Amino acid sequence: MALVTGGSRGIGRAIAERLAGDGALVALTYSSDESAAREAVARIEKDGGRAVALKATLGRHGDAASLWAAFDAEVAAYAPLAAAPTGVGVDIIVNNAGIGRSADLAALTEQDFDEVFAVNVRAPFFVVQEGLKRLRDGGRIINISSGAARLAMPEIIAYSATKGALDNFTLNLAKSLGPRGITVNSVAPGIIDTDVNASWLRDNPEAEAQAASVAALGRVGQPEDVADIVAFLASDDARWVTGRVVDATGGSGL
C-alpha cells in the first residue's frame, strides 16, 4: 500500500504508475484537477494495477488529518489486506506534492514565503506525523526534494530553502525511525519535462538544448527517470539505504 501526494500528474503520476506496476495499491492525491487524477487512476487500472484518487489540499492547518481520513475511507475495501492498529495500514509514503515560487529575496512576498513553506515543508512533516500511526515496520518514506537544494539559485531562494529543509527532515526521520526498520530518503530531481515546465521548455528547441546542457548526461530528465529511482528506494533492494539524498539530476552542476 502506497500513498503518493501530488500523484495526478508529472513526477507524482509517474511514481504512482511505477509503484502500481510493481504491485502496490496506490492512493494518489490531487489538489484541484480531479479529471487528471481520475485519468491517472484509469491508466493504472488499464495496465492491471490498483489505485484510488484522494482530494487533498495541502498547506493548510489540519490538512494531514483530512488526508489520512480520506485515505482510510477510500481504501476501506482493502482493509482486510492492509489492516493497522490505527486506520488502514500503509507501506510507502511518497511526499511529492510541492509548489514553486520564482522570486528572489527582494521580490518575494511574505505570503508567497508562507505558502511555499506550508506546502513543501509543513505538509510533509504532518503527513508523516499522522501517517506513522499507519506505517508498518519496515516501511518506506521517500521525500521528493530538488537539486536546487545544493546549488546557489537566488532567483528561487525560498523554493530551494524548502527543499533543504526537506532533506534535513529526511535525515532526522531516518535516525528516529531506523529502529523500526523504516528507511527514509530524499530524491532530488533536476530539470524534468513536466507540465510545470512546459510553458518554457516544450516546443522551444533553444530552451531544451540549454536545459540539456546543464546535465552531464546531456538531456532533459523525464518523470520516469525519477520514478524508477523512487521504485528502487521503495523496494527491498534498498533496505540498507537510509538518510540519503539521491541525486536525480543527470549530473547537473558537476
Automatic annotation (TrEMBL):
Keyword field contains RNA-binding: no
Keywords: Oxidoreductase
PROSITE patterns: ADH_SHORT
Protein's UniProt name: SDR family oxidoreductase
Family: Belongs to the short-chain dehydrogenases/reductases (SDR) family.
Record organism: Streptomyces crystallinus
Domain of life the protein comes from: Bacteria
Ketoreductase domain boundaries: 3-194
Keyword Lipoprotein belongs to the record: no
Upper classification of the organism: Bacteria, Bacillati, Actinomycetota, Actinomycetes, Kitasatosporales
InterPro entries linked: KR_dom (IPR057326), NAD(P)-bd_dom_sf (IPR036291), Sc_DH/Rdtase_CS (IPR020904), SDR_fam (IPR002347)
SMART domains referenced in this protein's UniProt entry, alphabetically: PKS_KR
